[in-house]
């Protein structure tokens, strides 16, 4: 039975072929084929290199001997035998030497050096040019003492800015306003006369009462 070659059938077949090409299995096949080709290429290169190296029968025999040596099991090396140490000959004990070593160490008092004595090398020493420069006294410029109250010449030539002039002027307060400095310290302001005292201020204005002190020792002494 043959299928009718219609446009719809061709379109569906083409879609299926495209899906097969883009499927995971197809990609896996591509990767596997590439890997096999790469391994085969490496093998061909190795075989060609081996054929070039083993052209003569002697080369092939040498190659087989090397393979046999590499295929043989590894033999562990035997540990080296240590040579027996020679026994020292016995010698008699020297009692005089032992007695000398047992004596305490004698320390002599150090000779004190005279602090005012000059060594001979210091007397014959020749000074270098560098030492002469270092021994020369350093001359420092004399700084004149500042006179208290004197004005520096830079201050006499300074020009004050508008901000400095504004700050130098005294603060102007409006006339009639009460300040901290009053002529009569006991005058009460009219606002204070009209003020109403709160409960909290009344409780704070009351004098605080303290309990009478009790002297226990004094009371016990009086009872006796």
TrEMBL record:
Superkingdom of origin: Eukaryota
Keywords linked to the UniProt accession: Repeat
InterPro entries: SPMAP2-like, THEG
UniProt xrefs under Pfam families: THEG
Name listed for the protein in its UniProt record: Testicular haploid expressed protein
Organism: Trachymyrmex cornetzi
């Amino acid at each position: 039975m043959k299928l009718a070659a219609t446009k719809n059938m061709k379109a569906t077949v083409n879609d299926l072929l495209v899906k097969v090409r883009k499927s995971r299995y197809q990609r896996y096949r591509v990767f596997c084929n590439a890997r096999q080709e790469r391994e085969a290429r490496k093998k061909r290169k190795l075989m060609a290199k081996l054929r070039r190296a083993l052209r003569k029968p002697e080369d092939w025999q040498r190659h087989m001997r090397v393979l046999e040596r590499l295929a043989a099991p590894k033999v562990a090396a035997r540990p080296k035998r240590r040579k027996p140490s020679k026994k020292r000959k016995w010698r008699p004990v020297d009692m005089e030497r032992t007695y000398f070593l047992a004596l305490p160490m004698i320390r002599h008092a150090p000779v004190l050096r005279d602090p005012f004595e000059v060594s001979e090398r210091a007397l014959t020493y020749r000074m270098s040019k560098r030492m002469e420069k270092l021994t020369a006294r350093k001359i420092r410029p004399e700084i004149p003492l500042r006179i208290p109250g004197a004005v520096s010449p830079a201050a006499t030539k300074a020009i004050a800015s508008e901000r400095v002039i504004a700050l130098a002027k005294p603060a102007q307060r409006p006339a009639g306003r009460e300040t901290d400095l009053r002529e009569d310290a006991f005058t009460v302001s009219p606002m204070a006369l009209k003020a109403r005292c709160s409960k909290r201020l009344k409780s704070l204005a009351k004098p605080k009462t303290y309990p009478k002190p009790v002297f226990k020792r004094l009371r016990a002494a009086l009872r006796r």
